[in-house]
Amino acid sequence: MTRPITPYMIRRLHVLYAKHGLGEEQYRALIGELTDGRTVSTKGLTYAEAQYLAGYITGANAKLRTSVEEMALRSLKWQRSAVLKRLQQIGVDTTDWSRVNGFLQQPRIAGKPLYQLDSDELAALIPKLEAIKKKIKEDERV
After folding, report:
1. Is the pTM of this model over 0.85?
2. Of 114, 37, 119, 13, which is closest to residue 72 (Cα–Cα)?
3. Phi, psi (rounded to 5 degrees) for 4
């Protein structure tokens, strides 16, 4: 059994985020990368992951700023890929950007084209698309 993160460690990480100038999107991208997408929340980390992250932020890598930006970009690409995969499963032609963006721009879906969605919006969109996919499967069974 893995040891859960302690309230002290959560506070310590948030102090480190602020001290090192990491915005919410940046630290969430770091967490997502560290946990292979299992969580993007500090509270979702195990104690060992939290210790590793704290060490990483405090200087385990001299190129922290570059790494954080690269990790945020990789996380954003992963989320966009996850959205496209689900769109394809729903039946949207993902080879046609006008169809992809047309679907996503619907107010009840995302209200914006894919390239304008930030990490938090993409994270909220994925479960919504999963629900649509589930609904389509249920309708096909009837």
Report:
1. no
2. 119
3. -75, 160
Q: Say which amino acid occupies 129.
A: L
> Which distant-in-sequence residues (6+ apart) come within 8 Å of 11 by Cβ?
none
Handedness of CA 65, 13, 72, 2 (dihedral sign): positive
Task: Give burial (CB, 10 Å; 0-12/13-18/19+) of 8.
Answer: exposed
Q: What is the pLDDT along the chain (142 residues), one digit of tens a residue?
A: 688 899 999 999 999 998 888 888 888 888 888 888 888 899 999 998 898 888 888 876 555 555 666 777 788 888 899 999 999 999 999 999 999 999 999 999 999 999 999 888 998 999 999 999 999 988 888 7
The Cα–Cα gap between 122 and 79 comes to: 6
Give SS3 for 4: strand
**Rounded distance, CA 17 to CA 7, Å?**
15
Q: How far apart are CA 96 and CA 106, in angstroms?
A: 16
